[in-house]
Amino acid sequence: MPFKTPARHGAPSAHGSSLAVIIVNYGTADLTIAAIQSVLDRHHGGRRVQIHVVDNASPEDDARLLARHHAAQGWGARVTLWLEPVNHGFGRANNLVIAALQARADAPDYIFLLNPDAALENEALEILADRLDATPGAAVAGAGIALPSGRQVTAAFRFPSARAAFAQATNFGPITRLFGARLVPLPPDHPDGPVDWVAGAAVLIRLSVLRRTGAFDPDFFLYFEEVELMFRIRHAGHQVLYVPAARVRHAEGAATGVKEDDGPRKRPPAYWYESWGHYHLKTSGRGGALRAALGWLAGAALNAPLARLRGQAPGRPKGFFRDFPRHAARALMPGWPQ
């Protein structure tokens, strides 16, 4: 059962809108505490802000550390701890809190998803909430993200597709340029405005829209769940905005063990491939998912001789030709043997 402090009640802010921050922790208690403090240290334009921290049955003593810090720092009703007995994964853990918030008479207007290895660098919540307050047709606003070094990283994206999978896997200049308008990542300096989806490490979402579209799909354990959610939100007629003026620092990979600079040879976990399959199946049907799978396989096969000719390492993940068909097939074809 979660350890829950009483809900924070107070007079509405001058802006009227209120927010709930959700942080899902797994083995990163120190970073989570820093993330919480970065929220508590801001004024958020006077908005009422509540923080919910879900500990996903961390294998160490994270739950005890979080509870002890909660008491020692006097967080009180400002921070609610959900100390879970099982690891729900990212989306399902967020869903626990979202469902509880939706059931409340004083449900917040927005939820802000913040990675445990991320922290606010400015009044990001105020900036994002102001933007959604002023843009009724938008349901999501994502922050600009930088590494601890200060280097800006991509936080705005196009939706994945078969062509994008082929071009990215091939990793060959002429093909990359040919399919440039299909590539998933947008440049790190992409300007403010509507995009397909934004990084789930720091994103504000209208709770009222989640009531209509549903929250995270529980079929996903980790990875691609925020992409699929924003796909549904976009297809329900709402905009997703990238707002780089809202700044968040992200110690990329500390929470998941996967970093952008790990290089393509890192071996993804099985659930990464399964989530990839779930995403494509749910957003483009079995035919579209199979086309994306064939695009990735064809691109990876073409990359192998091209990489050798250029004296480069292969662009595919380690174990790709064994792992991808085996694990993605479980999502694309239910009943596929383990």
From TrEMBL:
**Gene3D superfamilies given for it?**
Spore Coat Polysaccharide Biosynthesis Protein SpsA, Chain A
Task: Name the domain of life.
Answer: Bacteria
Q: Is-annotated flag, keyword Glycosyltransferase?
A: yes
Which GO MF terms are attached to this record?
Answer: glycosyltransferase activity
Q: Which UniProt keywords apply?
A: Glycosyltransferase, Transferase
InterPro entries assigned to the protein according to its UniProt record, in alphabetical order = Nucleotide-diphossugar_trans
Note whether Magnesium occurs among the keywords: no
Q: Which family does it belong to?
A: Belongs to the glycosyltransferase 2 family.
Q: What is this protein called?
A: Glycosyltransferase family 2 protein
Originating organism: Paracoccus gahaiensis
